[in-house]
From TrEMBL, chain A:
Protein name as annotated: Cysteine desulfurase
GO terms for MF: cysteine desulfurase activity; iron-sulfur cluster binding; metal ion binding
Phylogenetic classification of the source organism: Bacteria, Bacillati, Actinomycetota, Actinomycetes, Micromonosporales
Keywords from the named record: Iron, Iron-sulfur, Metal-binding, Pyridoxal phosphate, Transferase
Record SUPFAM superfamilies: PLP-dependent transferases
Cofactors that this protein relies on: pyridoxal 5'-phosphate
The keyword Amino-acid biosynthesis appears for this protein: no
Superkingdom of this protein's organism: Bacteria
Gene3D superfamilies according to UniProt: 1.10.260.50, Aspartate Aminotransferase, domain 1, Type I PLP-dependent aspartate aminotransferase-like (Major domain)
Record's keyword annotation contains Cytoplasm: no
TrEMBL record, chain B:
Compartment annotation: Cytoplasm
Protein name from the UniProt record: tRNA-specific 2-thiouridylase MnmA
Domain tRNA-specific 2-thiouridylase MnmA-like central: 203-269
UniProt region (Interaction with tRNA), positions on chain: 144-146
NCBIfam families assigned to the protein according to its UniProt record, in alphabetical order: PRK00143.1, trmU
Domain tRNA-specific 2-thiouridylase MnmA-like C-terminal span(s) in chain numbering: 280-352
Family: Belongs to the MnmA/TRMU family.
Residues given in the record as ATP binding sites: A6, M7, S8, G9, G10, V11, D12, S13, L32, G125
Keyword Phosphoprotein in record: no
Organism in which the protein naturally occurs: Actinoplanes utahensis
Described purpose of this protein according to its UniProt entry: Catalyzes the 2-thiolation of uridine at the wobble position (U34) of tRNA, leading to the formation of s(2)U34.
Gene Ontology biological-process entries: tRNA wobble position uridine thiolation
Length: 391, 365
């Protein structure tokens, strides 16, 4: 088996798993006032401090959530609501066209149900938002923009955005900037304080922690209307009893991912470059998508002209090679990726794509296994590509 | 063999996939997404292409322990089945979309893709027998038999088809599904045309073809008896919904005898005028070695069978019936069977173009 889908989810680090199990054996609701509660609270608060330290945030800026999706929704909707309620002219939401659906669908929902004006900022053929064009947009609409959301790095094609430049432009106009850094943490240097962003999303299961726990780093002075109402456990912005073992394991994983980042990146970049070179040698018409330089070290994303990504995935799956077409399902049916379409690919090219993503336990053997199976699969899938011709 | 199991989300295809796996095949499950606008999946319409059906199919595949994918066949389905359905009605014929789906989608577009991807055959949950002798036969469960909608398959299509359910009754299939822990064991059957979720065929056709008022005339006198909103809304043999202004002189019900698109006319008459004893058909698929057969024919899905002598020559099939049949509609299939204790054998099929009387009916003047 070769698992080349770490961008979807990556195995838990042994230390995170141990921390999870140990904390799960302990009793206590971190909101309780007795000794058991204090024990749980201590674990949660230590975790908050560890995450804050790892990512350049203050502990009070760490809002634990149920994962990346909730954190994205909280940031986009919560900041929009708070800003619009403070000033009714602030009803524009800006997001890049290549955001994850956790941002994009939330933005579109605001457009449909909350009267938001939605601007989807285009990207170039490498998937990057152009800072010049963004600056122009901000100049034209400064008095109306409630919130901007641009991801730190793209989950499909791996392109890393010029976040520092974009944040500076937004900050110059007093506009809060949210960035989805789910894929970035552990792969590129992420410092929340230095970035100047108002809010930043991360999630446990992409960094070696558990699924179902994540965080929104939310600047102390950024107002954000809650999505979930209840006990107000997280700074009154997020309610719900905290998942102590999940939080502890999450913090363990974030800390490990950030501490070992440089070493990890060196190793993974070399492995990824080998994968890309060997795929190109074996399949000369394969096209590498995304930015060749400003990209996540674990990401390799190709179009295989004449093939259907779906067919390739089926053939590779049957040989124990796990990867992804990157496309989301709409009602169970694979749609061509909105990311590739936004980068100017046509429907066919978008549907011919496959993402291979490496992680902390990837080895050369995984790349070998892929290269043993891929050329045959591509040849077969290209032949099957003719299946749509009318009879 | 490496086989692809088409899984609709119903009980039959789930058990078929499980049996193929038990038989030692390497099985991959595929659900065909057929609705063009994915939103329509969410409305939960009954039929074969809702999101719920896709989930049911995936859950069944997980229980059986086979890989599962969704294949988007919406464009092919639309072009080959839905548009064909509309065009056939517009041309005054009565199509059978399930048959067309087998002919053009399941055992064509899907089969081609499967073969190209290295599969040897397609498995479905149809109730029909296809044994080692390669002969297509009726299911043991006669009320559930689906050989009629499979008879359109050619030899090469049948050679790559596997029907694991033909020796079982529907009851047995349901019981087996329950034993296997498949949650679809008691899921109700879908009866309707899957792309017309509310079951209103006439409304669906009207939305596609618009209203086209025309005359309803008496087949014997030529007298105008009423008007209609579109000749396509009628099927030969139909009695209900004629809404005639002029009552029949004999007071007996009238039936649709024919539909003539060129002058947008629906012709009606008494029941005996529906009777035909010669059926002509085109595009024959013929499996028997001789082009002449003394056999039984079935003229519509779930219709009764009649004895006939059938002659196939080139592009045409002519059946002379031993007893008159009624409600013979152009566009439907005529399927020839050779009675057999091991399940009646499909000799071949063709698309009906016309029915006629070899002798004028006695009551004709
Ligand atoms: C960029 C990005 N944002 C958000 C998410 C959603 O995170 P989660 O799975 O924790 O809800 C993902 C992962 O699927 C992602 O890749």
């Amino acid at each position: 088996m070769a698992y080349l889908d770490h961008a979807a989810t990556t195995p838990m680090l042994p230390a995170a798993l141990d921390a999870y199990v140990a904390a799960a054996r302990a009793l206590g609701n971190p909101s309780s006032l007795h000794a058991a509660g204090r024990g749980a609270r201590r674990l949660v608060e230590e975790s908050r401090e560890r995450i804050a330290a790892a990512l350049g945030a203050r502990p009070s800026e760490v809002i634990f959530t149920s994962g990346g999706t909730e954190a994205d929704n909280l940031a986009v909707k919560g900041i929009f609501w708070a800003r619009r309620d403070a000033d009714s002219r602030l009803r524009r939401v800006v997001a890049s066209a290549v955001e994850h659906h956790a941002v994009l669908d939330g933005v579109e929902w605001l457009g449909r149900h909350e009267g938001a004006e939605v601007t989807l900022q285009p990207v170039d053929e490498l998937g990057r938002v152009d800072p010049e064009a963004f600056a122009e947009l901000v100049r034209a609409h400064a008095g109306e923009i409630a919130v901007v959301s641009v991801q730190w790095a793209n989950n499909e094609v791996g392109t890393v955005q010029p976040v520092a430049e974009l944040v500076a432009i937004a900050a110059g106009a007093g506009i809060p900037f949210h960035t989805d850094a789910v894929q970035a943490v552990g792969q590129v240097a992420v410092d929340f304080g230095a970035s100047g962003a108002a809010a930043l999303t991360l999630t446990g299961h992409k960094v070696g922690g558990p699924v179902g726990v994540g965080a929104l780093l939310l600047g102390r002075d950024v107002s954000c209307t809650p999505l979930l109402h209840g006990g107000g456990q997280e700074r009154d912005v997020r309610s719900g009893t905290l998942d102590t073992p999940g939080v502890v394991a999450f913090a363990t994983a974030v800390e490990a991912a950030v501490t070992s980042r440089e070493e990890h990146v060196g190793r993974i970049t070399a492995l990824r470059d080998e994968l890309v070179a060997r795929v190109r040698a074996a399949i000369p018409d394969a096209i590498l998508n995304g930015d060749p330089d400003q990209r996540l070290p674990g990401n390799a994303h190709f179009s295989f002209p004449g093939c259907e990504g779906d067919a390739l995935l089926l053939l590779l799956d049957a040989q124990g090679i796990y990867c992804s077409t990157g496309s989301a399902c709409s009602a169970g049916v694979a749609q061509p990726s909105h990311v590739l379409l936004a980068m100017g690919a046509d429907d066919r090219r978008a549907r011919s794509s496959l993402r291979f993503s490496l992680g902390h336990d990837s080895t050369k053997a995984d790349v070998d296994a892929l290269l043993a199976a891929l050329p045959g699969a591509v040849e077969r899938a290209c032949r099957a590509g003719a299946w749509k011709t009318p009879r | 063999m490496r086989v692809l199991a088409a899984m609709s989300g119903g009980v039959d295809s789930a058990v078929a996939a499980a049996r193929a796996r038990d038989a030692g095949h390497d099985v991959t499950g595929v659900h065909l997404a057929l609705a063009r606008n994915p939103q329509t999946f969410r409305t939960g319409a009954r039929g074969c292409c809702t999101l719920e059906d896709s989930r049911d199919a995936r859950r069944a595949a997980d229980v059986i322990g086979i890989p599962f994918y969704v294949w988007d066949m919406a464009e092919e389905f639309h072009d080959s089945v839905v548009d064909d359905f509309v065009n056939e009605y517009a041309a005054g014929r009565t199509p059978n979309p399930c048959l067309r789906c087998n002919e053009k989608i399941k055992f064509a577009a899907v089969l081609d893709r499967a073969v190209a991807l290295g599969f040897d055959a397609v498995v479905t949950g149809h109730h029909a027998r296809l044994g080692a002798d390669g002969l297509l036969r009726r299911s043991v469960d006669l009320p559930k038999d689906q050989s009629y909608v499979l008879a359109v398959l050619t030899r090469s299509q049948l050679d790559r088809a596997v029907f694991p359910l033909g020796d079982s009754t529907k009851e047995q299939v349901r019981a087996e599904a329950a034993e296997r822990g498949l949650a679809v064991a008691d899921k109700p059957d879908s009866h309707d045309i899957c792309f017309i979720s509310d079951g209103d065929t006439r409304g669906f056709l009207e939305s596609r073809l618009g209203s086209a008022p025309g005359d309803i005339v008496d087949g014997r006198t030529g007298e105008k008896l009423g008007t209609h909103n579109g000749a396509y809304g009628f099927t030969v043999g139909q009695r209900k919904g004629l809404d005639l202004r002029v009552p029949a002189s004999d007071g007996r019900p009238r039936y649709v005898l024919s539909i003539t698109p060129v002058n947008n006319t629906v012709t009606v008459g008494p029941r005996e005028d529906l009777e035909v004893d010669v059926v002509t058909a085109d595009r024959p698929i013929w499996h028997a070695s001789s082009g002449v057969a003394d056999c039984e024919v079935q003229l519509r899905a779930h219709g009764e069978v009649v004895g006939a002598s059938v002659t196939v020559t080139g592009d045409a099939l002519v059946a002379t019936l031993k007893a008159p049949a009624r409600g013979v509609a152009a566009g439907q299939a005529i399927v020839a069977y050779q009675p057999d204790p091991g399940g009646d054998i499909v000799l071949g099929s063709a698309t009906i173009t016309a029915g006629s009387r070899s002798l004028p009916a006695a009551s004709h003047v």
